[in-house]
Amino acid sequence: MRPRPLARQHRYITWLSLSLMSFLALMVLIVYESRWVYPEIQAYFSQTGNLTGQQLATRSRAYLQDAQSELLIDQPAQAALDAAIINIELAYGLFDVHVYRRQYECTEPGLVSLNRVLAGLALREFDRVAVVDELFAPIQCLTHIEMHQLDQRGAAINNFSESTRQHNQVLTYSSLLIFVMGLVFWWLHERQLRRTDRATQDTFEWMQRAMRDPLTGVGNRSALHQDVLAKQHQSLGLILVDIDYFKQYNDAYGHPQGDTLLRQLATLIGKTLNDEAQLYRLGGDEFAALIFCPDTETLKSYCRQLIEGVRKANFAHPAHSDKKDVTLSVGGSCFVADEATFPYAYEAADKALYRVKTAGRDGWQVTEGA
């Protein structure tokens, strides 16, 4: 009679062991997805910060700035007038949105100002400088709208992050209730995971199209973050590049020529680094380069090449404070790629760049031991 209890006990131990293994596998899976899916979703939401250029306020502001440029560029009055009217009318159409009127007090005065400018231009009663000055108020309002939208996005991301953390906690505690259903849950999860992988792949493909800077064709800030994550545990060098006195360059030549300079410098930086670096535009006149870098001396050599390369290019800069051609300020740091180490490496490179600017620009520095 003893074999029967022993067999029963064996089956019990086998099932208990299987259940424990299923439960542990479930817990490991939950922890794994909490650490993997959450950063990926957060990275996805961070793309919206680089899509603000597609928002109405941003487009409207760009049209007004184009109108200012047309009025300030040395060209026939009729050509300047026609171009300015088109840009202002386009800006007005994008600015005249119900949600802007309802949420932002500066919208109505801004629209009134644009109407006044259009009326003056239509009657040919205008002074170029006065019109340019009149457009600053609507531009300031549109900038305020953009910044407020970014603040709203940040709040949404924080709420989403908190909601995700709470959901993970609930999911962890709830898993205790499905202990006896471990194997069934595992199978269901695997099926769902395959579906999620397909959906995630579709999302990533869409994200890839949104991770390029439209002006220069190089990557943007989000692409930089993603590429660092893709190079886990590799020794990399991060180089931050600022164009010295770029605002003065734009003031002297106009924004179209400034855009041309940005494209030329993007090409020059890539060639100077022997096309071994991945280049990114972080916004305005700031670029970043990510390059394989086994040691600090190698990174210093790259920084030196950048400074010498732009000097040899002899890009004219009529408004340079030091009476020079276009110059760069460069800061760098070496690091081992990881999501946790990248913010420190960026901060170290940024501090090196700041030291260069403080010392008078047109130079480079590398933060040791970053």
TrEMBL record:
InterPro entries in the record: Diguanylate_Cyclase (IPR050469), GGDEF_dom (IPR000160), Nucleotide_cyclase (IPR029787), Rev_trsase/Diguanyl_cyclase (IPR043128)
Listed transmembrane segments: 12-32, 170-188
Keyword Transmembrane in annotation: yes
Keywords: Membrane, Transmembrane, Transmembrane helix
SMART domains: GGDEF
PROSITE patterns referenced in this protein's UniProt entry, alphabetically: GGDEF
Protein name per UniProt: diguanylate cyclase
Residue ranges annotated for the GGDEF domain, each copy included: 234-369
Catalysed transformations (reactions): 2 GTP = 3',3'-c-di-GMP + 2 diphosphate
Enzyme Commission designation: 2.7.7.65
Origin organism lineage: Bacteria, Pseudomonadati, Pseudomonadota, Gammaproteobacteria, Oceanospirillales
Annotated organism of origin: Vreelandella boliviensis LC1
